[in-house]
Amino acid sequence: MPELRKDPVIGRWVIIATERANRPDQFATVSEAGPAEKTCPFCEGSEPQTPPEIYSIRPKNTPRNSPGWELRVVPSIAPFLRIEGELERRGKGMYDLMNGIGAHEIVIETNQHIANMADLSEEQITNVFNCYIDRMNDLEKDLRFKYVMIFKNYGWVAGGGRVKHSRSQLIATPVNPKRVKEELVGARQYFDYHERCIFCDLIKQEIASKDRLILDSDGFIAVAPFAARFPFETWVLPKKHSCDFTALDNDSRKNLAHLMKVLLSKLKKGLNDPPYNYVLHTAPFRRQKLGYWKSIDSDYHWHIEIIPRLTRVAGFEWGTGFYICPLPPENAAKFLREVEV
Amino acid sequence: MPELRKDPVIGRWVIIATERANRPDQFATVSEAGPAEKTCPFCEGSEPQTPPEIYSIRPKNTPRNSPGWELRVVPSIAPFLRIEGELERRGKGMYDLMNGIGAHEIVIETNQHIANMADLSEEQITNVFNCYIDRMNDLEKDLRFKYVMIFKNYGWVAGGGRVKHSRSQLIATPVNPKRVKEELVGARQYFDYHERCIFCDLIKQEIASKDRLILDSDGFIAVAPFAARFPFETWVLPKKHSCDFTALDNDSRKNLAHLMKVLLSKLKKGLNDPPYNYVLHTAPFRRQKLGYWKSIDSDYHWHIEIIPRLTRVAGFEWGTGFYICPLPPENAAKFLREVEV
């Protein structure tokens, strides 16, 4: 019997097709390479091909926009939002709009031509998280912004484009993304009733049951969510309660880098180097003066959501918010636990 | 300057990339044919290849599951939900689930091997709508179900599979889809404040401004929504207020078929026969005895959402609920208005 399962945080029902007896390895990628690779503007030595860097990790004696760096952040050459200007919130009849003010930055995660974050060293991945935190702290100073979306598109099918060089993207916006709002509301409702964080409860249950647990290492777990939308959808959560990714201490950043390296290597080996997306879910900026999202510290819990792009999404999901997952998350978790890396 | 626009019903912000100066015809499909077509089980004469029909439009003197029909409905051969059984709502620790009870049916829209609904006659399209209504009325009698999702996947990229024969799908579920709930809540909030239907207001504004209007014919309009998520996203709405698609009278069904035929023909001609999805948004079942969604009659408004599949969705949209639309809906509407069919 297939199951209808409800996401405990945002209340979305999904169909889990338990009966189709799909083997996990059936979902391994049939590679869709996309068009030929372009010359890489992100490798060391190609600095003049990008806009001037906003941030870098590099030795003190090397000038900006020159070789010698380990990680660089540059503005997108095709930004979706503009950094200069006023928001000008306004109405147009019944509609609301504002100027497309925001930041759109590219985090070039390595100076070498490496495509998949799985193949970076733990030190390099730690650098990436250090960079996310530094950029978020910097962008928080701009009072026009409410949120920074950080995400990665790896592989052609996942929107990774024609250049196969590991990078993430960052979009700072004057609005909160809908999904984050839904999580904040759902987590608040749970907290109001139970006086506990819903994610902390979820972590305890997943560690106890082990059914959907993929990794449990220093301070972090990776789980296949109970109401997964996609085969091999994976959430990475810190065991210690925190709403704010930027509060992560140095040791924890290293531990997270270790878990991500192992997890992404398992995906790569087990599923034939699949395209994937990940998205960081963290609290919106909580500036004292705005009194904004006051109690979020106790009820929200940051996490990373990873979605391998193994199935074609049919499209009615966009119209209905209703998903059908062809592989039970328990089977996905078991498969990934057993991949040796 | 790009714009941030807010969907008035569900409050989702989107970036409209007004500045990239994309020409509408740049989005025309580069055909991705998918694997070779399979022998068609949906053509007249192939009735034994499908499960027995649940419903058909056929002359009275022809037996079921034999040739002579104009339209047939059959159960899916790979149903996501099972029709037999009890719901058994239950908990699993903090999680909620129930048995995957539901119906999953295929509406075969013509006995001829025609791929695109645009190429059906208006009479055939009217038959399709008649069928939707008859099936919804029948499924409403099953008290386990709350909602019937009706959608179409046309073309390989849109999940249309290997058989190029025009059909829609119907999934009856014991839960309401998340997106429909969000629309019900948003429409209710607007009604509570204004004592008017938000969709009726939207229709009036779109007809007055004409900026996003694609078609305005007997009783219906087709518009590019103000906060479109995708290029050429189109909503079809009845001008007369009604929350319930099944309440559509016979003349209105014909008028809707006419508008859909013109609209889908414009998409086909203007955008090189693109893959597309459509989804019917209508009120959940409102059974008197359940007192369910009591006042929905005045505040919700059924409509059809059509999404041509012209751009690769990068994936962070799934993680954030935040979309970037590379073409202003005003440009899309102007382009489609000018396509002659």
Number of strands of chain A: 15
Q: Please state the average pLDDT score of chain A.
A: 92
What percentage of residues of chain A falls in helices of 4 or more residues? 25-40%
What's the CATH class of chain A, please? Alpha Beta
Uncertain residue segments of chain A: none
Number of contiguous helices of chain A: 7
Query: If you compute it from the alpha carbons, what radius of gyration of chain A comes out, rounded to the nearest whole angstrom?
Result: 20 Å
Shape by Cα distribution of chain A: globular
For the sheet with most strands of chain A, the description reads: 10 strands, antiparallel
* H-E order of chain A: EEEEEEEHEEHHEEEHEHEHEH
Chain pair forming the biggest interface: A-B, 74 and 74 residues
Secondary structure category of chain A: alpha+beta
Give the quaternary arrangement of the chains. homodimer
Question: How many structurally independent domains of chain A?
Answer: 1
How much of the sequence lies in strands of chain A comes to: 15-25%
Provide the CATH architecture of chain A: 2-Layer Sandwich
What do we call the CATH topology of chain A? HIT family, subunit A
Query: What order do the strands of the largest sheet of chain A run in, or round the barrel if closed?
Result: 3-4-7-9-8-13-14-12-11-10
- Measure the end-to-end span of chain A: 34 Å
Commentary on this structure:
The structure is a homodimer of 341-residue chains. Chain A has 341 residues and is of the alpha+beta class. Chain A has a single domain, classed as 2-Layer Sandwich (HIT family, subunit A), CATH 3.30.428. Helix content of chain A is 26%, strand content 22%. Chain A has helices at 122-140, 178-194, 198-209, 250-270, 296-299, 316-320, 329-338; strands at residues 3-6, 13-16, 55-57, 71-75, 90-92, 95-99, 103-108, 147-154, 167-173, 213-217, 220-223, 234-238, 276-281, 303-308, 323-325. In chain A, strands 3-4-7-9-8-13-14-12-11-10 form a 10-stranded antiparallel β-sheet, sandwiched between helices. The longest helix of chain A has 21 residues, at 250-270. The first copy, chain A, is globular. The mean pLDDT of chain A is 92.
